Q: What sequence folds into this?
């Protein structure tokens, strides 16, 4: 390596000497090549002025039209793409430029979504429940059903179930309604067992409003998702505390539910456990149930009139669920059962 460096330095010194000699002598490049015994092309190359070069990598060429096309494509797919996919679609643009454009558009999309985020405060324990299925340890593991009260944060039910069908959901909710009384609203996602006619009929018989999440939007049921995450972590901790390794079973879930329901939350001076908040709940009267259903019908009528939908028209599940999301939200806010603070 040192010999190569010395040879390069010698060639550079010889080139500088030939350039200096050509500038100071009246000889032409051909005459100088004859005197030095070198080819004319070599002397001509040595005497040529050196181009100015800045250190570092050469700058990346950026075509505004191509960059605009990349930005539009990333916005069209809501940022759900990769640099490799962009490189295959825009092969003339450098990978580094595609990385920068993808990161910038994703950052702008995140800032735009933050404007629609809100903090929800559920004021009355026992009025709104959330139901969701989860897998305990990834794909192929057992399914667990979780039922949670949103205002108190208490896990009302968490157990491994043989399947996610409507019969399991209806049986669990019917038992909980008999023990604790039916809530006013139940929040759910769009699982097959939760969308089934059997589940909807059970809720209708008990006067419970079904609040379905938008398709593909787990954060809409964020409180239940966060509770399930805490439950799964606590169950895994119980597995390791017992000296085992693997998927939690029914015993670990029961232990995790008992610990989380008894754990105080909030500032130390006013901390209450979910069990304490649940025991302080007020009984849901038939008048309150009729009141929220009347408010729901009033807001649904307003939304149907604004959208030009007939009052007696039966809508598909997705459209009816969209109306119910706005109508139930406004009804809960009217009765001070829900406070929404926008960011």
A:
């Amino acid at each position: 390596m040192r010999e190569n460096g010395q040879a390069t330095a010698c060639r550079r010194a010889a080139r500088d000497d030939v350039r200096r000699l050509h500038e100071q002598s009246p000889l032409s490049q051909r005459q100088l090549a004859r005197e030095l015994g070198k080819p004319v092309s070599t002397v001509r190359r040595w005497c040529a002025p050196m181009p100015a070069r800045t250190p570092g990598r050469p700058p990346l060429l950026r075509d505004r039209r191509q960059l605009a096309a990349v930005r539009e494509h990333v916005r069209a797919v809501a940022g759900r793409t990769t640099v490799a996919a962009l490189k295959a679609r825009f092969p003339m643009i450098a990978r580094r430029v595609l990385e920068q454009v993808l990161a910038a558009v994703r950052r702008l999309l995140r800032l735009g979504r933050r404007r629609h985020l809100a903090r929800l405060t559920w004021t009355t324990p026992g009025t709104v429940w959330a139901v969701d299925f989860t897998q305990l340890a990834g794909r192929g593991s057992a399914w667990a059903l979780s039922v949670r009260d949103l205002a108190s944060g208490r896990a009302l039910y968490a157990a491994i179930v043989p399947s996610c069908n409507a019969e399991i959901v209806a049986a669990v909710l019917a038992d909980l309604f008999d023990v604790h009384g039916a809530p006013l609203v139940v929040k759910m996602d769009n699982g097959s067992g939760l969308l089934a006619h059997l589940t909807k009929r059970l809720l209708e018989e008990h006067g419970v409003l079904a609040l379905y999440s938008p398709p593909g939007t787990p954060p809409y049921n964020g409180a239940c998702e966060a509770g399930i995450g805490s439950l799964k972590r606590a169950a895994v901790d119980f597995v390791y505390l017992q000296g085992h390794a693997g998927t939690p079973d029914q015993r670990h879930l029961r232990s995790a539910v008992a610990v989380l329901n008894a754990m105080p939350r909030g500032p130390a001076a006013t901390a209450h456990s979910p069990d304490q908040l649940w025991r302080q709940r007020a009984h849901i009267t038939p008048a309150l149930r009729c009141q929220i259903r009347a408010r729901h019908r009033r807001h649904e009528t307003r939304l149907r009139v604004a959208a030009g939908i007939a009052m007696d028209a039966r809508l598909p599940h997705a459209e009816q669920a969209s109306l119910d999301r706005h109508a139930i939200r406004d009804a809960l806010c009217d009765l001070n059962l829900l406070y929404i603070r926008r960011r």
